[in-house]
Amino acid sequence: MAWIYLFLAGVMEIAWTVGLKYAQGFTRLGPSLFTAGAIAMSMFLLAQSLRVLPIGTAYAIWTGIGAVGAALWGIVFFDEPRHWTRLACIALIVLGIAGLRLTSLE
Question: Measuring CA to CA, which residue among 14, 63, 65, 67 is closest to residue 38?
């Protein structure tokens, strides 16, 4: 169950990171409330996963999911650069996440 919590925490990290863009410096009420809620949910789920998982593994995977998700969201929805070197670096983060998961004791 801890891995499910961690995955969902990562998804919520993507949500709040993207929400920051739409909140425009917390000047838009709806996106700002969404972002605050997503932050709270992400932290709650991360905390639940940390009851079982090692902090270093969980934190690295949580931030990795958020980084990859936010980068891909930016590429798809904000027309951010799609250069092959950027995509290769994103792939390296994914490999790191997978490696941490595969070598975890839990």
Answer: 14
d(Cα 9, Cα 63) in Å, to the nearest integer?
9
Give 21's contacts (C-beta < 8 A, 6+ positions apart). 78
| pTM assigned to the model | 0.88
**All structural domains of the chain with their residue ranges:** 2-102
pLDDT in tens, 59-95: 999 999 999 999 999 999 999 999 999 999 999 999 9
CA nearest neighbour of 65 among 94, 102, 36 = 94
Average pLDDT score over residue span 39-59: 96
